[in-house]
Design brief:
There is one protein chain. The two termini are about 15 Å apart. Helix 4 crosses helix 9, helix 5 runs antiparallel to helix 9 and helix 6 packs across helix 9. The protein is globular. It has one domain. It is mainly α. It is about 55% helix and about 5% strand. Strands 1-2 form a two-stranded antiparallel ribbon. The chain has 14 helices and 2 strands.
Length: about 350
């Protein structure tokens, strides 16, 4: 279905701003060497001395630490009863499959892309950016990776066709480590920033990519967690200035939980925005953010019909058998505002209608 003209205009404007933002780290690196008369010293490209001692930790966190962190935090959430007995039946199957499958699916795909596709597509360019200083590579990857994911996420909400590949992530009626990896396999495999970062790593920015990945993972997992670590920043007045900066810079539980709310009519839920993953700054820049410092009372989609795990994870290969499900055969998921015969149950949501 065609996009609304106002939405098209906003997308065009925001994409133009994004192109400018993408160039900022490149410009910063260029000016740095221009001011240094183009001199490249070993100290420029090496890991800063104050970070050398943490490099082994980042390597271990990347290899197994993040999985351990998710499992431990998930155990704490369950132990605290934060799921309110909602993790049952199909919910459990969907979350477990979506957690385990990418660990098996993505490594060979990314390995093929990095070891076979890239040498074929851009031959003789391996490590050509290895001269870039660590801070420049970190700045470059942090922006390129997260801004690309912001757009990948945003378009899956604003383009009706793409929505059904992302709706699995919003079907969970709870927040927490259990649902953090809950995605349709197509959404996961075509995760655009994975291949962008793999390309930059191939070009010689592997070390800064490692640090960006670990830091981003902790921020995004923390934003999905049902443990509201940001509440003390809102409670104590002395921490309010820190909270003001923090909530506008990175994703927090309050801002990301609002994105997963089951309603946007209460002034807290904001399904049509808060798309940021590591940086909430993108939502601030593009006007898609809502900051309330409050948490929704409930999560998920009101139209959710407890679809089978295989329909949620493997759609469109397998369809849902639930009548009226947006993942069932012969059903279209379209913006409800664009169809007069669709019942209004959730502003800015995509609801199913019989085709």
């Amino acid at each position: 279905m065609a996009l609304d003209q106002n939405l098209k205009g906003k997308l065009t404007r925001d994409l133009s701003i994004s192109l400018l933002i993408y160039t900022l780290p490149v410009l910063a690196i260029y000016l740095y060497f221009k001011l240094n008369n183009g001199i490249i010293a070993e100290s420029h490209i090496a890991l800063p001395s104050f970070l050398e001692f943490v490099q082994p930790a980042f390597v271990n966190i990347r290899s197994w630490g993040l999985i351990a962190f998710m499992l431990v935090l998930g155990a704490i959430e369950f132990g605290a009863g934060l799921y309110d007995d909602q993790w049952t039946g199909e919910e459990r199957k969907v979350d477990i499959i979506c957690f385990l499958a990418p660990k098996l699916l993505l490594p060979p795909v990314v390995a093929f892309f990095s070891l076979t596709a890239l040498p074929f597509l851009i031959p003789n360019l391996e490590n050509t950016l290895s001269w870039v200083p660590f801070w420049g590579g970190f700045f470059l990857i942090a922006i390129a990776d997260d801004l690309t994911q912001y757009w990948y996420h945003r378009l899956h909400h604003q383009v009706p066709f793409l929505w059904r590949f992302h709706r699995t992530h919003h079907s969970a009626p709870y927040m927490g480590m259990a649902m953090a990896s809950r995605q349709n396999f197509i959404y996961t495999v075509f995760f655009s920033q994975i291949y962008l970062t793999a390309t930059l790593t191939f070009l010689g920015l592997g070390l800064p990519a490692l640090f960006v990945l670990v830091i981003k993972s902790f921020i995004t997992l923390g934003a999905h967690s049902s443990i509201a670590w940001d509440k003390p920043f809102y409670k104590y007045r002395i921490l309010h200035p820190i909270a003001w900066v923090l909530e506008r810079f990175i994703s927090t539980p309050a801002t990301h939980h609002a994105h997963h709310a089951d309603t946007s009519g209460d002034g807290i839920g904001h399904f049509k925005g808060n798309f940021g993953n590591m940086f909430f700054l993108w939502d601030v820049i593009f006007g898609t953010g809502l900051i309330t410092r409050k948490f929704p009372k409930s999560y998920g989609m009101k139209s959710y019909k407890q679809e089978e795990w295989y329909a949620q994870f493997l759609w469109p290969i397998f369809k849902s058998k639930k009548e009226g499900s947006a993942l069932a055969a012969g059903v279209l998921a379209v913006p409800i505002a664009q169809k007069k015969d669709t019942v209004l149950t959730h502003p800015n949501r995509y609801e199913p209608i019989q085709s």
